[in-house]
Design brief:
The protein contains 6 helices and 7 strands. The chain has 179 residues and is an alpha/beta fold.
Length: 179
């Protein structure tokens, strides 16, 4: 069971990790570092091991990845968002996400925010208020898109399995998911 993202606790000062467009799952965690090749316990050591070798040892709990469009494209590796979650990433912001990556991230309780934050630079510190729906950089406040009630509940539970265990069911698609 995953604990919820620390960003769900309220405003927090976090580092921005900038990435470009079309970041694929092989860049996030190359296949040779898959948990069935190494071990699940080591997975947090491998995010961006080749693209940004300092990432895993430098990321702090709650830090935010800000990327370009189509983040998480490539294969359907569930361990890619899991590795980011285990390393401490609090949320990922991008204009768009690959569909299977978005599904896997939701299943694992990793918040994804569809927004273009290309004005942010790598290494900047921002105040990120996920429950309040805002990001503050200096004197500039940026509104974050609000997730559905269901998405917020899954994030708060730490993932879909934890949510199902606590609620005993999933919502009806036509009623509760979009509210």
């Amino acid at each position: 069971m995953n604990p919820p993202s620390v960003l769900l606790d309220g405003p927090r000062r976090v580092r921005v990790w900038r990435f470009g467009e079309d970041v694929n799952t092989d860049q996030i965690v190359p296949g040779r570092y898959a948990p069935y090749v190494t071990s699940p316990e080591q997975l947090a050591e491998y995010p961006f091991i080749e693209a940004r070798p300092e990432f895993a040892s430098s990321v702090s709990a709650g830090d935010v990845i800000v990327a370009g469009r189509n983040f998480g494209c490539g294969s359907s590796r569930e361990y890619a968002p899991l590795a980011l979650r285990l390393a401490g990433v609090g949320a990922i912001c991008a204009p768009s996400f690959a569909r299977i990556f978005a599904r896997n991230a939701l299943n694992l309780g990793l918040p994804l925010i569809e927004i273009d934050l290309s004005q942010l630079a790598d290494g900047e510190t921002v105040e990120f208020d996920l429950p309040g729906g805002v990001l503050v950089l200096g004197g500039t406040t940026v509104a974050l898109p609000a997730p559905s009630a269901f998405t917020r509940a899954v994030w708060q539970a730490g993932g879909i399995v934890s949510h199902l265990r606590s609620e005993g069911r999933l919502p009806r698609a036509t009623q509760e998911v979009t509210s």
